[in-house]
Amino acid sequence: MVLLTADLIAKSISRFKKKRGLSHPEYLKTITHLHFSNKNIQDIGDISLCRNLTVLYLYDNQITKICNLGFAFNLTHLYMQNNDITRMENLSSLQMLSKLYLGGNRITVVEGLEQLTELKELHLENQRLAPGEKLLFDPSTLLALAKSLCVLNINRNNIDYIRDLAALKELRLFIATDNRLQSPEELEDVLSHWPQLLQMDLRGNPVCKLSKYRDRLITACRSLEILDGREINELTRQFLINWKASKEAKMRRSNIRMLTGPLMPHT
Question: For the chain, what is the radius of gyration of the CA atoms?
Fold first, then answer.
C-alpha cells in the first residue's frame, strides 16, 4: 500500500529542497502545489507540515477515503477524481476551497459541504454507481452552496430529478449529460430559479427528444447563451418569446369567451 506522507513528499522533491538549502520541515512549509496523481496511492497520511498547500492533485489513484486534510486551511483546489471514494466527508476545514473535483468515484450522496461557502465549482461526473442507484443531493448542502456555486457537473449519474437544485441561484454552467431527465416542465421550473445561467448541456437525456424541447428552455431562461453545445441566437429567442406571449394571450381570450358565453346582440 502506498501511503502519502511527509517523507514521501520530501523524497520526491529532495533535489529542489537541496537547491534552496532548506531543511526537510522548512521546505515542506513552503509548498503550495502538490502533484501526486497516478502514483498508486491508497491512503492519505500525515502531511500537515505542508500547511501552506493551496492546490492538491491526487487524481487517478486508489484512495478510498478523504482524510487528514484538516490542516489545509489555505487549500483552494482539490483534484481527487478517478479514485475509490464512497463518501464526501472530512471537508469542513477546507473553507477556502474554490474547486472540488470528485468525478469517477463511487459517491452516492452529495453531502458534507455545509462549511464550504467559497466553493465555486463542483465536479461529480460519472460516479461508478451500483445498478439502480442514482446520485442524490443532501438539501442542507445545496442550501449552503446556494450563494457561491457557479459550476456544477453531474454527467452520467442516473439522475432523473433536479428540482432540488433550484436552490443553486448563482449557477452559470450546468452540465448533466447522459442522465435520465424526462420532464420539460421540471426543467422550466428550475431554470426560472437560475437567473445567472449562461451555459447548459443536457445531451443524452430523454427530454432532449421531445418536441419543442429547445424552444421551451430558451424561453424559460433569458440569460442562457449556449444550450447543448449550440449558441442561442438572440433574434430567435425574441421570436420565441413573442410567439409564446401571443399564444398565451389567445388562450386567455378563448377562456374568457368560454366563461362569459357568446355576446348577445342589443335589441
Answer: 25
CB count in 10 Å sphere of residue 184: 18
Burial of 251 (0-12, 13-18, 19+ CB in 10 A): exposed
Domain chopping of the chain, boundaries: 32-255
Cα→Cα distances 118→62, 95, 107, 244, 249, Å? 28, 7, 22, 39, 44
Which phi and psi (to 5°) does residue 135 adopt?
-70, 130
Q: What are the average pLDDT values for consecutive 10-residue runs of the chain, which has 267 residues?
A: 90 63 80 95 96 97 97 97 98 97 98 96 97 96 97 98 97 98 96 96 97 91 94 80 64 70 56
Q: Is the CB of residue 144 less than 8 Å from the CB of residue 116?
A: yes
Please count the other Cβ atoms lying within 10 Å of the Cβ belonging to residue 257: 11
What's the CATH code, domain 32-255?
Answer: 3.80.10.10
